[in-house]
Amino acid sequence: MATTTKKRATRIKKGTTTMKRTGQTKKTKRATSKTITARSISFVQSIASHRKAMILLFAILILALGALRFRGFLLPATINGRPLFIWKYLTELHQTSGSQVLNRLIAERLINQKAEKQGVSVQQSEVEDEFNKLEEQFSQGGEFDAFLVSQGLTRDQLLSQLTLNLKVQKLLSDQISVTDEEVSQYYADNKEFFNEVSETEAEAQIRKDLENEQLQQQVAPWLQQLRAEATVNIYLPGFNVP
User: 12 pLDDT band (50/70/90 cuts)?
Assistant: First the structure.
């Protein structure tokens, strides 16, 4: 009986010891798991922090490159290391030619709006034809480029100007009228200037010149009428644009 009781006590003690060991093992595993989790969180936070730093560095680099590339918008020039700021440049420009530039831009916008309203369009081939005619007139080496420089135009600006001119011609075509009698009279009065071309070619050129002359006479009052019919508000200070 005593032996049986002793065996039971031994088994209970072993069970208790096993439970203690199991508990300690679970605690160790939990502690280890918490440590691993903490390390993982710390590692993730470190990566996130590193990414933020890289993104910030990249953004600063982009801003620096942008500032270098577009610095002319803030700083047109430096003189012996001293800055000439954009507002000083714009003030002078505004006072010298600002009114002329603004008038031109307003006129261009009015012409384009009128053309759109009346369904008037210009094909690229028409513009290219006019461009080629001009280029032929200055066919000698370098003369066409010299012409552009004298007019203060680039090729793209000339193409834009030709497009606008063709729109005006179409918009005012019903106000331009040159008779055969006017052409013949002009040819008779200036025949000596057309010795190198046939009469037919001369009359074609005369008709075009007379039409252009009438067009130039019509443009100014027509633009004034467009301006009077439009609502144009000027918000820049110091401008007195009619």
Answer: very low
